Automatic annotation (TrEMBL):
EC code: 1.8.1.9
InterPro entries in alphabetical order: FAD/NAD-bd_sf, FAD/NAD-binding_dom, Ferredoxin-NADP_redctase_2, Thioredox_Rdtase
Protein source organism: Paenibacillus sedimenti
Gene Ontology CC annotations of this record: cytoplasm
Quaternary structure note: Homodimer.
Gene coding for it: trxB
Listed name of the protein: Thioredoxin reductase
Length: 306
């Protein structure tokens, strides 16, 4: 099967590109991975979205965009892309459950995935007391004690979200300063259930018969190890671009972000574009993702009329 255009990734960048491509008559196929969009499902209330006086929730925004893209004629297939061949035309994309699909042009909008700490206990208990997504699992921690690891915007959002469920939330930050925006820090600091523990490096997720029971950390002040009691550990230490499936087919930077020509979404291969967080190591904001999705669709349309 051959498509005029495929968009890999069904987050805000991918769906924005899909709306623009569909409206231009380019009949895009959007490939939606099995996992939910990381950035959006972890951003429950987008209170700064321009024009929305009362904000909008991430999942609602994504759902609206999904329906809007379909309404304009985009097709959506669900499955994880595990390989692409960009060495000749048409490009080839291999999708779990569907096999090989060909396309004239490709827009990559695969976003990022939450990073893990790489400490013992973490992977084994992922989904069983260790989480990277408060909105996905906060309800399991009603009236329980939880830790949130990290000090950026993601950590603030996780802590704020968890405060609707958990009885006590402790933000564990490895340095003495938070990296989060002041607005989010202030919102979190207003919540009395949220406590702050700075200068601690996580060493191990402590587990027992009933699952996660805490976290072992080093205190930078005393140089001593400490055990923090908790029923759940939420890791919010940033994210990494989802580019493994590209396997050296496109130039990436040292962190794995796709390199695009400055001021455009064009990659090194004509007809292949990248938008959203997967090519944005600097801003990684929802509005930038939307803007670059629009840019990718326009760059792709120009490719056809060049
Ligand atoms: P950031 O990179 O901003 O912050 C990561 C945090 O995790 C830092 O506090 C960092 O500590 C800590 N950290 C990293 N590695 C480790 C480790 N191995 N052990 C312990 N701590 C660690 O990531 P975010 O995901 O918070 O944000 C990424 C981008 O997305 C930012 O641009 C942010 O503004 C944006 N974003 C915006 C949101 C919004 O506007 N609502 C919501 C979520 C994200 P240290 O400071 O010591 O390095």
């Amino acid at each position: 099967m051959e498509y005029k255009s495929i968009i890999i990734g069904a987050g805000l960048a991918g769906f924005t590109a899909a709306v623009y491509m569909a409206r231009a008559g380019l009949k895009p196929l959007v490939i939606k991975g099995q996992r939910p969009s990381y950035h959006l499902t972890t951003t429950m209330e987008i209170e700064y979205f321009p024009g929305f006086l009362h904000g909008i929730s991430g999942p609602d925004l994504l759902d609206n965009m999904f329906r809007q893209a379909e309404q304009f004629g985009a097709q959506v297939k669900i499955g994880d892309v595990y390989e692409v061949d960009l060495s000749k035309r048409p490009f080839k994309v291999w999708l779990e459950g569907w096999g090989e699909i060909k396309t004239e042009t490709l827009i990559i909008a695969t976003g990022t995935t939450a990073k893990l700490l790489g400490i013992p206990g973490e992977k084994d208990y992922l989904g069983l007391g260790v989480s990277t997504c408060a909105p996905c699992s906060a309800f399991l921690f009603r009236d329980k004690k939880v830790l949130v690891i990290g000090g950026g915007d993601s950590a603030m959002e996780e802590a704020i979200y968890l405060s609707h469920y958990a009885s006590e939330i402790t933000v564990v930050n490895r340095s003495d300063k938070l990296r989060a925006s002041l607005a989010l820090q202030e919102r979190a600091r207003e919540i009395r259930k949220i406590r702050w523990l700075m200068n601690r490096t996580p060493l191990e997720v402590i587990t027992g018969e009933k699952g996660v029971t805490g976290l072992r950390v080093t205190s930078h002040e005393s140089g001593q190890e400490e055990s923090l009691e908790a029923d759940g550990v939420f890791i919010a230490i940033g994210s990494k671009p989802n580019t493994e499936f590209l396997a050296k087919q496109l130039p990436l930077d040292e962190q794995g972000y796709i390199l695009v020509k400055p001021g455009t979404t064009e990659t090194d291969i004509p007809g292949v574009f990248a938008c959203g967080d997967v090519q944005d190591r600097r801003y990684r904001q929802i509005l930038n993702a939307i803007g670059s999705g629009c840019m990718a669709a326009l760059d792709c349309q120009r490719y056809y009329t060049r």
